[in-house]
UniProtKB/TrEMBL annotation:
Organism: Brevibacterium jeotgali
Gene3D superfamilies: Glutaredoxin (3.40.30.10)
Record-annotated membrane-spanning stretches: 35-56
Source domain of life: Bacteria
Gene Ontology molecular function: any one: isomerase activity
Domain spans labelled Thioredoxin-like fold: 106-273
Keyword Transmembrane helix (UniProt): yes
Keyword field: Isomerase, Membrane, Transmembrane, Transmembrane helix
Name listed for the protein in its UniProt record: Protein-disulfide isomerase
Keyword Protein transport: no
Amino acid sequence: MANHPSSKDRRNAAREQARQIAAAQAKKEKTVKTILYAGIAVVVVAVMAVVGTLVWQSSRPVAPPQAMVSGTLAFAAADDGIQAVQPAGEEEGADVSDLPTVADSGAAEGASVVKVYLDFQCPGCKAFEEANGETLTSLAEDGSIVLEYEPVAILDRMSAGNQYSTRSANMAACIADSGQSALLPDVMLELFAQQPGEGQSGMEDDQLLSIAESAGVDVDADVAHEDAATVRDCVTEVAFDRYVENSTQDALNSEGVQGTPHITVDGEPYEGDWSNREAFAGDLIRASGQN
């Protein structure tokens, strides 16, 4: 007669089967959790690596263009016309060794330093240059003043998304970095002459380069920037975008600039009426003690 498992044996077998199923399920869940946690850990490490890289890149000093110090270009009298000279101030990594000092230029002793902060998308800056560009150049040519320009990028939002303020200021930096900064006054005047309207798309790269070439810039000349070979490359790759951003923030946060055009005379904000060409010129001459 065959032996049949008792009710107790069946219950024990059922319990053992349930225990085995539960153990297998727990093992499976543990494996899933291990994989999940490992995946999360990999993602966290990857995110931390990306964040660390971005932080390192943002904190890394940005090499300035040749001939510029803290975003500034300086011009003074030469034997014939004006020449680029060493801007005042200091900036880590700045190389202005190829430029004469103001003392070695034809600037008169005690000549005031007139500095203009400008944005190439700014209608007020265009009006300022139309009213006073020739006067400033003339005063620099005869040694009455030392003329400084600092292009900043405040109005990128006004160029239909193509970051024209940054890109045009970047081109100025590219030209300076190629050793052709003496041509920048002419380039800047033409940039204002062809200024896009606010809210319209800013000029494209080929238009910017055409303006530079019309002012005599060799756009195929080498630049010192490690990530660009020529002025053309520097412009199309916007190689100095971080430099423009940093110098703009310095102007806004540390140098008292609240808008453009912003004019200083020997470091002090100009409080007169720059729209009156004769009065403006007279104020500058008197500031230099030449009245």
